[in-house]
Amino acid sequence: MVAEASGTEQTHAETMQENVEELLEAARYDDIDDLIRLASTGVSLDSKDLQGRTALHMAAANGHLGIVEYLIGNGVVIFPTLNFDLFPKARAALAPGELDFIFPFELGDVNASNMEKNTPLHYACLSGHVEVVKKLVQSGASVSLLNSHERTPIDEAMSMGKMDVIDAINETMAELELPGVNVS
């Protein structure tokens, strides 16, 4: 005979969702001890909340390098986990002045795309983050991938008048083609 659950008992799914929310909160507020505790209870570090956000989103968006390093060190991949539809500026990848914060470790697929086929480079070009653009191109990001609007990252930079981004792409591409030559 199966006992019926009372209205006050939580379902397993509700409990798991609460644990995911706690994990994301720990990442958001730089609580590494709580993050580790939750992970040790079986909460996946790749878990997403109802809006599709992960602990990596929360930690990176709030500048918590220790949490980001812990997550990456435990198998969370940076770009494939980002939902660019939910994070239009891809905050974790594109915040100005955070280049060393974002790229101190191995990149995931730098050409990962969202439902509109935008890549991190599309967003970096749209936002005008020159140093991020350079690092993405150096890391193998394609400058010729088309999004669903049939626009390349360069097209997106031009649409926003980001000529410094286009110059950065050209310089970086030239440096990649001509090693040892400083183009400026």
UniProtKB/TrEMBL annotation:
Write out the entry's keywords from A to Z. Answer: ANK repeat, Repeat
- A Pfam family per the record: Ank_4
Q: Which PROSITE patterns match?
A: ANK_REP_REGION (PS50297), ANK_REPEAT (PS50088)
* Gene Ontology process terms (BP): protein K6-linked ubiquitination
Q: Does the keyword Thylakoid apply?
A: no
Q: Does the keyword Electron transport apply?
A: no
Indicate what this protein is called per its UniProt record.
Uncharacterized protein
Query: What is the species listed in this Swiss-Prot or TrEMBL entry?
Result: Corchorus capsularis (Jute)
Taxonomically, what lineage is the organism?
A: Eukaryota, Viridiplantae, Streptophyta, Embryophyta, Tracheophyta
